[in-house]
Amino acid sequence: MQGNVIQTDENGIESIVSADLLNREPQFWGVTMQRDDQTFQWVKDQESKQEAQDLTNLLALIDVAAEKNEHEKAVKLANIHENRIRNDPISTEVSISGAKTEQDDNNARQYLIVSYTEKDLAKAAGARWDKNARAWYVGPEADIQTLQRWLPENVSSQQEPAIDPVSEFADLLRAQGCRVDGNHPVMDGSKRRIKVEGDKSGEKSGFYVAHLDGHPAGYFKNNRTGIETRWKAKGYSLTDEQKQNW
User: Fold this and answer.
1) How far is residue 82 CA from its own chain's centroid?
2) Are the C-beta atoms of residues 127 and 138 closer than 8 Å to each other?
3) I want to staple 238 with a disulfide (CB 3.0 to 4.6 A). Which of 64, 91, 210, 242 is the partner?
4) What is the spatial distance between Cα 153 and Cα 98, in angstroms, rounded to a whole number?
5) Where are the domains of the chain?
6) Alpha-helix residue ranges (DSSP H) falling in 163-238
7) How does strand 192-194 pair with strand 135-138?
């Protein structure tokens, strides 16, 4: 996130320059994201710093949703929480220190890999939900014997996938702010519209297309935020019999 101004040179050519470099107030705020190859891609320009910060937070949450390692997911979300407090103008050193302490507590938790369809079973066995990390962990009075099956080292060694592709894609849609209800997601390769947070009655600002053929995959765009996501199921294919069941 960077405050920018538009500068015009002697030839009348306009260019975007960092406001800090010119020691000027920003005219707008640019938001970029870092790719896996460490290069940066422009995402969107916002009129205010708060709008840019909100979009930056959303991008960070999307990055967390794509993170497969539960420990790394918890660390990233704790960092988001701390940064939000730092960016709050009424924050104090005490509140910032408290956020750091909370992050240390989160890092000490033993996280679980629990699919959406099995969350009630895990909860009954004493698993607790970390709302910041958006992940389940071993609670203080948990039946650790029952929860063994959801420990990361055990889930990775199971023969069957921890989550079916339809539920996996539905979780992605929810993470992007979609209201997943009715028959969504319909994964037949056709273009679909879906409601997102902020939509009024009759509006459907979400767009997706997904398929179950071969390696299940899909695409989603939130037309309210402009965020696009390409998705692939976690490394497995469906048999013909499984496809017919969906």
Assistant:
1) 17
2) yes
3) 242
4) 31
5) 163-246
6) 165-175
7) unpaired
